[in-house]
Amino acid sequence: MNKEEIKDIQCECPHCNLMNCYETKYEDISVFLCFTCGFTSNSKMIVDSEYVKKEFEQNQQVAKFIKNMQYTDTIRNLVWYPTVLQFPSLGVIFPEPINDTEWEWVYAQEVPILEEEKEKFKMDGTDEYYKTKLDVENAKHYNKFDFYTACIDAKIIIQPTTIN
Fold first, then answer.
1. Half-sphere exposure (CA, 13 Å, Cβ side) for 108?
2. In terms of residue numbers, what domain contains 141?
3. H or E element: which one contains 80?
4. Is residue 14 part of a domain?
5. Is the pTM of the predicted complex or chain greater than 0.90?
6. How far apart are CA 164 and CA 151, in angstroms?
7. pLDDT for residue 100
8. Does 101 fall in a domain?
9. Do the beta carbons of residue 93 and residue 151 sit within 8 Å?
10. pLDDT (tens digit, 9 = 90+) per residue, 8-62?
11. Considering only CA atoms, which of 49, 53, 19, 50 is closest in space to residue 36?
């Protein structure tokens, strides 16, 4: 994949109506991600499609509250969901419900497992142990419209520095 083959276009997010959403086009697919509200979609996520039914609605691994937060984009005829971003060695950003209609963003950093807690992190069926874990006890919490700051704190987005 060449950088020239990927095209990013800034667009309005249908969920929060702000211009902090980006459509990334590569070959025959478009992926949308809003850096304000954290909702995402792609060109396969057509309303009432088999893809949406299989990957989201019928998928037991997708949390119920995420399924309930589905947003329908009537302009593009796509469904949007809050995203979960996980990057090895950095951690994970995920939505956490506050109640049935509200959520916040959480960033849990990946941290080394200490020698004294190693036994709790044995890999099933082996004599090996995990070396890192997600530090959910010390996770940072963000407003539902502050996904961007969570991405900066996770070092998924690097802010440009100004040289004076």
1. 14
2. 84-158
3. strand 78-82
4. yes
5. no
6. 26
7. 79
8. yes
9. yes
10. 899 999 999 999 999 999 889 999 999 999 999 999 999 999 999 999 888 888 8
11. 19
Question: Phi and psi of 156, rounded to 5°?
Answer: -80, -30
d(CA 163, CA 3): 27
51-106 pLDDT, tens digit per residue, is 999 998 888 888 888 889 999 999 999 999 999 999 989 999 999 999 878 999 99
- Tell me the CA end-to-end span of the chain in Å, nearest whole number: 36
Instruction: Give the pLDDT of residue 155.
Output: 92
- And the tokens for 46? 């057509």
Same domain, 32 and 89: no
User: Domain count of the chain?
Assistant: 2
Burial class of residue 103 in the structure, from the number of CB atoms within 10 Å of its CB (0-12 exposed, 13-18 middle, 19+ buried) = buried
What is the distance of C-alpha 2 from the center of its chain?
A: 24
Listing DSSP states for 23-40 in one string gives EEEETTEEEEEETTT-EE
